Amino acid sequence: MSRTQGTQDLGKAILRIALGVLILLHGIAKLMAGPGFVMQVVAQAGLPSFVAYGVYIGEVVAPILLIIGLFTRLGGLIIAVNMLFALGLVHVKQLGEMANTGGWALELQGMYLAAALAVAFLGAGRLSVGGIDGKWN
């Protein structure tokens, strides 16, 4: 393994683990609170209520996949789709707003979306359960 490959694998691990942990914390909060809020949001959008349970896949299952480095590209893609749903269903009115402290009002959501897409394109790297040649890694 070359020196460059080692730093790339470390960078991939840091990105996917940080994203996984941060999104998983949102999922844990939703597990503790129950699906009520999300069910209300999807119902207001005219979607069937079972769609609300997708948040558990996007904020619990997919982040765990990222953290351990298994089916990492799929996990990143699921989180990206989850973030698009969050932006479209909850945050759409804030798309053009600035935060009180400067910057975009949705910079956190935007960063989660960008990081999820980066993980989906980059894969897990060698520092993962699936390894560099693992399926969907």
Tell me the series of helices and strands, N- to C-terminal: HHHHH
| Unreliably modeled segments | none
Distance between the termini: 18 Å
Number of helices: 5
The residue-averaged pLDDT reads 94
Based on secondary structure, the structural category is mainly alpha
Number of strands: 0
Major β-sheet profile: none
Helix content: 55-70%
3D shape = globular
Total count of domains: 1
Layout of SSEs?
Elements: H1 3-33, H2 36-44, H3 54-68, H4 72-89, H5 107-122
Helix pairs in contact: 1-3, 1-5, 3-4, 4-5
Label this structure with key terms.
mainly alpha; 137 residues
Outline the structure in words.
There is one protein chain. The chain is mostly helical and 137 residues long. The chain has one domain (3-122). Helices cover 65% and strands 0% of the residues. It is built from 5 helices and no strands. It has helices spanning 3-33, 36-44, 54-68, 72-89, 107-122. It is globular, with a radius of gyration of 16 Å. It starts with a helix and ends in a 15-residue tail after the last helix. The model has no long low-confidence stretch (mean pLDDT 94).
Compact summary:
This protein is mainly alpha-helical and 137 residues long. It has helices at residues 3-33, 36-44, 54-68, 72-89, 107-122.
